[in-house]
Amino acid sequence: MCVLWHIYTHVSRKRESPSDVERWFRTQAAALWPAALGSLSLRKSPCIREQCEACARGDQHASHVLYLRVKGRRIGLYIPENLVPQIERSLENGRALQELLYEVGRRYTNAIKQERRSTR
Ligand SMILES: [Zn+2]
């Protein structure tokens, strides 16, 4: 049988208060700037010049576009070639930040469970 979700019913042995978790999260998150979520892709499109050899050959022009979602709307932003490394780095940080949010969710949940247990 395939178990997709492992449900943690027991609090981990590690004792952390909610503020320990907060401090840990803030430190980790601070190192993940710049951050972005989205996907960077290479798009080919014709240019606006009237007599362009590349466009006439059908080669067109390659440019990077960053696709992201803002308030549910999908948008594409043109990314100049020299900024591509910076955008790639922020996307890596964005993915790491997403992982961090899962991890902090787990640790925060454990911390408030322990807190509730100790005040009873
Ligand atoms: Zn062209």
List the helices and strands and how they pair.
Layout: H1 18-30, E1 39-45, H2 53-57, E2 61-70, E3 73-79, H3 84-118
Helix pairs in contact: 1-3
Residues 46-47, 49, 52, 54-55, 61 line the site of zinc ion.
What's the helix-strand series?
HEHEEH
Low-confidence stretches: none
Tally of structural domains: 1
Give the termini separation.
Answer: 38 Å
For the largest beta sheet, what order do the strands appear in spatially? 1-2-3
The biggest beta sheet is recorded as: 3 strands, antiparallel
Task: Output the radius of gyration.
Answer: 23 Å
Strand residue percentage: 15-25%
Could you describe the 3D structure shown?
The chain is of the alpha+beta class and 120 residues long. The chain has one domain (18-118). It is 44% helix and 20% strand. It has three helices and three strands; from the N terminus they run H-E-H-E-E-H. A three-stranded antiparallel β-sheet has the order 1-2-3, with helices on one face. Helix 1 runs antiparallel to helix 3 (84-118). The model has no long low-confidence stretch (mean pLDDT 90). Bound molecules: zinc ion. The site of zinc ion has 7 residues, from helix 2.
